[in-house]
């Protein structure tokens, strides 16, 4: 079964992770633009970050047979820095038209401040202009209230529900998102957010429709194999294959295909890896034997 | 070559809506004048609008236009972007044009960067883009490196010796067949032969095989 991790920050992961992910069946990832732990203080840092998402990281993933897509946005945390907001929002149109960019995200709320609200609203308009779906982050603190506010915001802006993926859901927020008509993401984390056991229970209760799971792996304590691990747990607890495949492949493909930028026939084929051309030098291969698979 | 030659090759393969898009791409909404931010958006969108499936355009047809491209890079997106850059040159003062080319490269994804590098030798006074071309050789993204290093007459025509030698050695390091480096025979020099021989000796000392292409650069390398 092919797996799609629809929320993972690969720039903070190693090539060992890429190898393990490919071995576990992950063939496509979506990397949303987010913060980097250390706050950025110059628009130029965003420019280089955005460029790396469509440049180096995309190439790095391809060397392991993994297709790398991304979502671009000014994230809610850094939307609170008045020295960045206008500049980063002005930069985004230059990146939203690019090939691997299949959504606007992560947008949404962190502390629900006026500046976050303004950036959220302006980026919904950008998504409309570039005909892209949106990936919406929900706050970790005061989660239920934050999610309600998020859904209200999307309604106020009349953003089409079927083009919204609301992420980091819990038992309390999932029914709200499904009821809104949007898609619901779940970040399976070692300690916080959501775990495998609870996720299987949610799937048994709600089924597969508009439900996605991801690792949200980043630079903190997280696990890039949470999608395959949750698949294994679903199997052990008797969830049928059709349901599993819908959650880990068909749903993310269908959601991001709304961008018009997923080549569905190409996605179904195994990716071509050719590391011969990367022998030593400055590629990710440093003297190992090259892998060739066509 | 002019933009219209290339557009002439491309247009019959596009549907009417895309042809219309391409004809207006990069122009400001109020008129035909070129608008830098509209251009940068169009340059990015060309990937999606024109498509990435390689065209079966024969080598000779491209050579007739002054272009040399590996078969898998003969895509409508790449040809369209080259045409957009050539057309912009006809519409902008040199200073504004240089800034535009630099911006296309700096904020470009891998495909956009490849297109900029393929366009360089076709421009007026290509030597003014030397810094950009040399910077491209420092990339770690192999397809971008190959866009400047392979099937591209620019480095042999404009690079100083040291930069050309670095490019050739990097090609060997990354497994690019040297037959793809244009003008290598003409630009070959004794320093390059020494670098190749030293590299061969480093590999032998490490117990590794010596890439056959090294012997093309330095007859002693195989010893
Ligand atoms: Zn995230």
> What composes the largest sheet of chain A?
8 strands, parallel
The secondary-structure element order of chain B is HHHHHHHHHHHHHH
Strands of the widest sheet of chain A, in order across it, are 1-2-3-4-5-6-7-8
* Rg over C-alpha atoms of chain A, rounded to the nearest angstrom: 18 Å
Which architecture name of chain A does CATH use? Alpha-Beta Barrel
Distance between the termini of chain A: 19 Å
Sheet with most strands of chain B: none
Low-confidence stretches of chain B: none
Question: Which helices and strands occur, and which strands form pairs?
Answer:
The complex is a heterodimer of chains A (294) and B (223).
Chain A: E1 3-5, H1 15-23, E2 26-32, H2 43-54, H3 56-62, E3 67-72, H4 85-91, H5 93-96, E4 101-108, H6 114-129, E5 134-137, H7 143-156, E6 164-166, H8 174-180, E7 183-187, H9 196-206, E8 211-214, H10 226-236, H11 241-257, H12 264-268, E9 273-274, E10 292-293
Helix pairs in contact in A: 2-3, 9-10
Chain B: H1 3-10, H2 16-24, H3 36-50, H4 59-64, H5 76-91, H6 94-106, H7 110-119, H8 130-136, H9 142-149, H10 154-158, H11 161-173, H12 184-187, H13 190-205, H14 212-217
């Amino acid at each position: 079964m092919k797996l799609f991790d629809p929320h993972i920050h690969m720039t903070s992961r190693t090539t060992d992770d890429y190898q393990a992910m490919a071995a576990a069946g992950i063939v496509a990832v979506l990397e949303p633009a987010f913060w980097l732990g250390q706050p950025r203080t110059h628009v130029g840092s965003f420019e280089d970050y955005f460029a790396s998402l469509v440049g180096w990281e995309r190439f790095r993933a391809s060397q392991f047979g993994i297709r790398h897509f991304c979502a671009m946005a000014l994230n809610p945390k850094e939307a609170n820095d008045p020295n960045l907001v206008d500049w980063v929002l002005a930069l985004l149109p230059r990146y939203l038209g690019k090939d691997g960019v299949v959504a606007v995200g992560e947008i949404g709320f962190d502390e629900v401040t006026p500046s976050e609200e303004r950036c959220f609203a302006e980026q919904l308009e950008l998504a409309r202009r570039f005909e892209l779906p949106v990936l919406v982050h929900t706050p970790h603190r005061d989660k239920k209230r934050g999610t309600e506010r998020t859904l209200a915001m999307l309604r106020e802006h009349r953003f089409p529900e079927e083009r919204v993926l609301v992420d980091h859901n819990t038992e309390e927020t999932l029914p709200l998102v499904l009821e809104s008509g949007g898609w619901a993401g779940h970040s399976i984390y070692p300690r916080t957010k959501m775990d495998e056991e609870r996720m299987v229970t949610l799937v048994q209760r709600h089924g597969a429709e508009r439900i996605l799971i991801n690792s949200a792996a980043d630079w903190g304590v997280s696990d890039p194999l949470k999608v395959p691990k949750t698949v294994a747990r679903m199997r052990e607890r008797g969830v049928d294959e059709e349901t599993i495949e819908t959650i880990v492949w068909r749903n993310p493909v269908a959601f991001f295909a709304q961008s018009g930028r997923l080549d569905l026939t190409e996605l179904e084929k195994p990716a071509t890896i050719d590391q011969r051309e990367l022998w030593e030098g400055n590629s990710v291969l440093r003297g190992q034997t090259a892998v060739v698979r066509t | 070559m002019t933009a219209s030659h290339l557009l002439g090759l491309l247009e019959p393969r596009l549907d009417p809506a895309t042809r219309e898009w391409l004809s207006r791409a990069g122009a400001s909404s109020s008129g035909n004048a070129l608008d830098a931010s509209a251009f940068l958006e169009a340059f990015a969108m060309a990937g999606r609008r024109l498509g990435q499936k390689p065209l079966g355009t024969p080598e000779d047809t491209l050579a007739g236009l002054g272009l040399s491209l590996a078969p898998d890079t003969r895509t409508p997106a790449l040809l369209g972007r080259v045409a957009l850059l050539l057309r912009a040159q006809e519409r902008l003062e040199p200073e504004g044009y240089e800034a535009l080319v630099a911006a296309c490269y700096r904020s470009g994804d891998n495909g956009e960067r490849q297109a900029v590098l393929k366009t360089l030798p076709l421009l007026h006074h290509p030597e003014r883009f030397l810094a950009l071309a040399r910077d491209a050789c420092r990339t770690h993204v192999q397809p971008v490196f190959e866009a400047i290093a392979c099937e591209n007459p620019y480095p042999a025509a404009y690079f100083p010796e040291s930069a050309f030698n670095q490019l050739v050695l990097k090609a060997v390091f990354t497994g690019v067949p040297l037959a793809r480096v244009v003008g290598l025979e003409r630009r070959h020099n004794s320093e390059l032969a020494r670098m190749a021989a030293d590299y061969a000796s480093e590999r032998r000392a490490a117990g590794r095989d010596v890439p056959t292409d090294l012997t093309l650069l330095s007859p002693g390398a195989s010893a």
